[in-house]
Amino acid sequence: MADDDRASSTPNSIPSDPSDANLQKKHASVIERLANRNQTRLENSITRRSESDSSSSSTSSFLVRFSDSKRAIESEIAQCRLTPPEPTQLRSHLDGISTSISDLDKLVAETSYFLPSYEVRASLKSISELKQSLDNLNSELLPKKKFSFKNKGTKKDPKSESKDPGLGNSDSMLKSKQEQASYNARDSPGIRDKDSEVLVKNFKGSDIGEFTISGLSSCEVKLIGSVRALFIHKLRNCKVYTGPVMGSILIDDVEGCTFAMASHQIRIHNAKNSDFYLRVRSRPIIEDSWSVRFAPYCVSYGGIEEDLRDASLGEETGNWENVDDFRWLRAVQSPNWSILAEDERIDTVKI
């Protein structure tokens, strides 16, 4: 009987304590959470390292592409200067160099979101030097007689003819030189020297490279369709509304103006008291500017959504409010620009 009692009191016959089982479950749960947390940290660390390596690799790849293209363009300019093409081929050859520079500009715009700021600045400086070299080449090779307007003044206004032939020729030559300098500054189709006019251009169905808007006062300009590059210079109290620009927009010397435009890259120099409604792939750049305000793009016309998609500008990036002031190097935001308050913004401009 005693043996039976001992057999019945062995540990195997005693039920487990429920509290011990709960403790074991809690312990296992804690171990599992710690293991999952450690795995998550490890995966995040690998992801960050991969992103860093990818960014570094992308920057290196860009620098190689940029350097190769820059050298090729410099070689083209040097070769053209040493051995100019035939006169019948000169213009198309120079246009080809201009297109290559625009493509290089577009490359910077499309990749600037992952490039260090100093690389963006250095690249833009190199592109500016290439454009200046091409402008100098245009001045050297294009025949001077192409820009002569000396006969226009006397035909339009006989009263302005001087009795002194020498004085009349001097006035005409001065006008010709001024117009030639303006033309050489940006040799492209455009709208120039207008006052208090509404000017509409439709580029749909055409292949426009560079387009210039210069010397306007109190004008309203509307551009429908796409161009490769847009240059804006010396505007006062104007409104400019554009479709997408596939390359870059350069704005210089504007005051009291309103701009609504979409582009891969926008650079603004010497602007005062002006508003910019933008859609842009890279961060807008301002320099020597103050009292400029920014808001999102607000232009509409039939087919604009398709035009924006074709120019790779179909999606809003939010970069309109990420402005870089190259004259402001402190960590805090530059006082030269601000976000335009919503209650002060214009409505969508329908062209």
Automatic annotation (TrEMBL):
Residues 175-328 form the C-CAP/cofactor C-like domain. InterPro entries: C-CAP_CF_C-like (IPR017901), CAP/MinC_C (IPR016098), CARP_motif (IPR006599), TBCC (IPR027684), TBCC_N (IPR031925), TBCC_N_sf (IPR038397), Tubulin-bd_cofactor_C_dom (IPR012945). The keyword Hydrolase does not apply. It holds the Pfam family TBCC_N. The keyword Acetylation applies. It is found in: Cytoplasm. Keywords: Acetylation, Chaperone, Cytoplasm. Residues 154-164 have a biased composition (Basic and acidic residues). Its main location: cytoplasm. Residues 8-22, 169-185 have a biased composition (Polar residues). It comes from the Eukaryota. Residues 1-61, 148-190 are annotated as: Disordered. Supercomplex made of cofactors A to E. Cofactors A and D function by capturing and stabilizing tubulin in a quasi-native conformation. Cofactor E binds to the cofactor D-tubulin complex; interaction with cofactor C then causes the release of tubulin polypeptides that are committed to the native state. Belongs to the TBCC family. This is C-CAP/cofactor C-like domain-containing protein. It comes from Citrullus colocynthis (colocynth).
